[in-house]
Backbone:
């Protein structure tokens, strides 16, 4: 390659490097994809000059720069969702920057869908929407077929709920797919008359939606979804995201798609694609380990491999997480008492051992403390079989992990990735319904993790909650619920700790800390460009700081212009 | 097109699900599609494999295996797109799945639920049921079963076996209990009549086994109310594994019906076939000596209209 490598020096209002040796600087010099150095403009230009021509770019002169934020637990389908209209409760910004205001009741959902419906020309086309979250509606209002029939009596409609466990369809869709009162599928909810009311609960029933469900599943795994994933990350200020366990890396076609999208210079993000052994451990672990090692050996700077994702329990708000006695606080009628295992607990040690022995890092979804216990036991057993150092095996979500568990994690050098956004989005429900006041105050215990000396990150799990590193940090710092209650004051962490969680610590747990996570000479030139300084603003407004965009590998990626 | 029967095979890790699936694949008389968690554990002779394509393996005997790597919905789409369509679907559940939640997928256009089977390890089930982590999961699985396949009975003594069976009857009051060793259970027990009614036609091929007994009966038209009463009476027993047959009813003699019963679930549905038998034929598969020597005559003999 004869392409000339140039040096660019960016002076800024402040640069927070997250490197303890040089916490802040006035400028950063970027050469190619990497950081030449941080320091004063004078210091940097002396060095740059020696290497050849350089420019001083003033575009960030009034901005605050951070090492690119890292979202260490989200899913590529968050990008795919934006190919459909959003009808969720909270305001959410689309990949194009459009602000979708939250639909606070059923009338608002119907109004939103009517607007969208009128813009579709083809009368046969199914209208698919996403994000519906009736848990927040007053009086347990449910969106049912007759509401959707107001929008259209002829166009099939399919509304996917935020929980991922339900969909609501209209009468036209049921007519098209032949769903009548004779439908025997469990999960087809009914009106008192016995007619299906349009609510399809759980995937077996959702599958009755036929083409609509298939289209939805395929769209959220498409190449366009991958592009939008990167755009959503950029808009939020993330420069690296980890797609944890959404992609079947053994699928050559999907892998090729990942490579062509992420390695495109216009794609604004690095992606760590975790190898997943399927929802129920469906891929042979030994072959998966070999494959991931092979992918890691030939990875690019932008598309990374090397972690394995496994899932062993469900979700707390879905009452399917495995929680130790006394289990659930106020579970719905008919609930069996505890949640679900997704992998037999007896199998976890064998599974973890395969990846552990191969030298890979295992990231295990554990919402409940019982799940965390099984995973921590499995890691201990893996160490007994194959002693190893520096594994960074990570408890993902880590929502009810207890102080003794954090201490065991610290002993074994494990990491935590804590789902801090839950505080805001479901904190009230956790207090009233799922785990009760005491455990709700102890959930997502960043303070305990810090005290135990566990390296931890914090995450959004998009599309479960919106991508937004500053929101994730705001939650961990403030622990405010949607109703404004402070939940577990003692578990709050400082702004500095929260910012480390989304930079150096996230990089550490992905084993990318040699390349990203802090700003220092030699590392990749990934920057998050902010309008204000998180260390200076009122911590209660951390989430409101404007994001100009990012720099990834030295290339600028401004966020989509917002309309609000 | 008739609906494809779906069998769900559940049960905790180590109970013998995969062994049973392998046994059924080797002895398949129908073109089965088998959805499995892990190809690696399916023991197929290389010479039987006619084609491999990503997530599916085609066998020379017409069966296909499909991996659940991309989830059940995707696997179902894959196998239902096969031409010709499979005659039977077998889904191997993960060791912690609730078979009922998987059986829910069978209530869909083009499919019907044959049975949810739960394979039980006779040696370990009692201990498992009180396990700190999986006790509730294991007990929930039992309650979802139409048939319990009590496997590894050769490894426990008679007292333990009868105690375990009594306990299982309480856990799964709706299910019959079939004893097995090495996961080998005859297809006639595992499957219903299927799309081609083979089990009725070939009943003599599967008679000889000491863990079950097959009784067959041929006669004239039956009264619908008599069948209903008989089916209700059978709810009290856990030694009648299956009842299946094609019957003609006194109230609709020109429309032969298919009678199917597994565990405590039964149905009487219209026979979709060009071939309209005029006689009723019923097969019952039971624990050994569950019926008196006159077999089904006690149940059905008096019901004929002649």
Residues:
């Amino acid at each position: 390659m004869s392409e000339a490598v140039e040096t660019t020096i960016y002076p800024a209002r402040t640069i927070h490097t997250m490197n303890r040796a040089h916490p802040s600087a006035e400028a950063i010099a970027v050469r190619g994809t990497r950081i030449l150095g941080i320091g004063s403009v004078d210091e940097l230009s002396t060095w740059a000059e020696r290497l050849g021509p350089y420019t001083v770019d003033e575009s960030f002169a009034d901005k605050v720069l951070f090492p690119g934020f890292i979202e260490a637990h989200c899913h590529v389908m968050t990008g795919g969702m934006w190919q459909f209209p959003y009808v969720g409760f909270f305001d959410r910004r689309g990949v194009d920057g459009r602000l979708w205001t939250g639909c606070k009741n059923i009338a608002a959902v119907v109004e939103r869908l009517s607007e969208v419906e009128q813009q579709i020309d083809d009368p046969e086309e199914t209208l698919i929407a996403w994000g519906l979250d009736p848990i927040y509606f007053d009086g347990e209002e449910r969106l049912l077929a007759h509401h959707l029939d107001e929008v259209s009596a002829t166009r099939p409609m399919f509304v996917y709920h935020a929980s991922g466990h339900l969909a609501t369809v209209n009468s036209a869709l049921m007519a098209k797919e032949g769903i009548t009162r004779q439908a025997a599928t469990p999960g087809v909810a009914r009106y008192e008359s016995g007619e299906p009311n349009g609510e399809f609960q759980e995937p077996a029933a959702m599958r009755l939606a036929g083409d609509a469900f298939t289209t939805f599943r395929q769209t959220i795994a498409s190449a366009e979804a991958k592009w939008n994933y990167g755009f959503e990350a950029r808009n939020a200020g993330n420069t690296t995201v980890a797609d944890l366990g959404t992609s079947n890396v053994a699928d050559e076609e999907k892998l090729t798609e990942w490579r062509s999208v992420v390695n495109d210079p216009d794609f604004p993000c690095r992606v760590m694609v975790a190898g997943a052994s399927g929802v129920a451990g469906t891929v042979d672990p030994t072959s998966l380990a070999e494959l991931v090692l092979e992918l890691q050996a030939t990875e690019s700077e932008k598309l990374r491999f090397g972690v394995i994702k496994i899932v062993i329990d469900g979700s707390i708000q879905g009452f399917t997480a495995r929680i130790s006695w006394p289990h659930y606080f106020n579970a719905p009628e008919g609930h069996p008492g505890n949640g679900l295992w997704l992998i037999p607990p007896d199998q976890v040690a064998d599974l973890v051992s395969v990846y552990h022995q191969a030298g890979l890092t295992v990231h295990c979804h554990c919402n409940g403390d019982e799940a965390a216990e099984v995973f921590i036991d499995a890691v201990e057993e893996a160490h007994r079989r194959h002693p190893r150092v520096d594994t960074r095996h990570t408890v993902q979500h880590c929502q009810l992990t207890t102080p003794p568990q954090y201490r065991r994690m610290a002993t074994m050098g494990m990491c935590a990735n804590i789902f801090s956004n839950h505080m805001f989005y479901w904190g009230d429900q956790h207090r009233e319904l799922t785990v009760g006041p005491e455990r709700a105050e102890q959930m997502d215990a960043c303070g305990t993790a810090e005290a135990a000396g566990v390296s931890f990150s914090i995450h959004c799990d998009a599309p479960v909650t919106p991508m937004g590193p500053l929101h994730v940090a705001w939650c961990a710092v403030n622990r405010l619920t949607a109703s404004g209650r402070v939940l577990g004051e003692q578990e709050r962490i400082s702004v500095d700790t929260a910012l480390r969680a989304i930079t150096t610590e996230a990089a550490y747990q992905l084993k990318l800390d040699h390349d990203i996570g802090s700003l220092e000479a030699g590392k990749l030139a990934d920057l998050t460009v902010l309008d204000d300084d998180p260390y200076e603003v009122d911590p209660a407004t951390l989430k409101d700081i404007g994001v100009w965009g990012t720099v990834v590998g030295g290339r600028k990626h401004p966020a989509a212009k917002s309309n609000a | 097109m008739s609906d494809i029967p779906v069998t769900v095979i559940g049960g905790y890790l180590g109970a013998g699900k995969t062994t049973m699936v392998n046994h059924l694949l080797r002895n398949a008389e129908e073109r089965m599609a088998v959805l499995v968690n892990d190809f690696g554990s399916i023991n197929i002779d290389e010479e039987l494999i006619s084609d491999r394509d990503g997530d599916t393996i085609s066998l020379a005997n017409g069966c296909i295996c499909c991996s659940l790597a991309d989830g059940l919905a995707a696997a179902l789409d894959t196998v239902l797109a096969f031409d010709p369509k499979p005659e039977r679907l077998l889904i191997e559940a993960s060791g912690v799945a609730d078979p009922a939640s998987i059986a829910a997928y069978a209530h869909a256009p083009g499919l019907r639920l044959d049975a949810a089977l739960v394979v039980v390890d006779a040696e370990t089930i009692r201990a498992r049921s009180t396990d700190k982590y999986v006790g509730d999961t294991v007990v929930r699985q039992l309650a979802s079963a139409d048939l319990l396949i009590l496997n590894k009975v050769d490894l426990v003594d008679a007292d333990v076996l009868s105690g375990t069976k009594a306990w299982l009857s309480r856990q799964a009051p709706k299910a019959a209990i079939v004893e097995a060793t090495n996961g080998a259970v005859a297809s006639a027990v595992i499957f219903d009549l299927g799309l081609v009614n083979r089990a009725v036609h070939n009943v003599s091929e599967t008679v000889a086994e000491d863990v079950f007994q097959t009784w067959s009966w041929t006669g004239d038209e039956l009264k619908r109310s008599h069948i209903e009463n008989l089916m209700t009476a059978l709810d009290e027993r856990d030694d009648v594994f299956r009842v299946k047959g094609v019957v003609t009813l006194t109230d609709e003699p020109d429309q032969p019906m298919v009678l199917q019963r597994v565990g405590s679930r039964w149905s009487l549905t219209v026979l979709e076939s060009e071939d309209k038998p005029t006689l009723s034929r019923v097969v019952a598969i039971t624990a050994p000596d569950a019926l008196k020597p006159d077999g089904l005559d006690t149940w059905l003999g008096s019901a004929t209209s002649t």
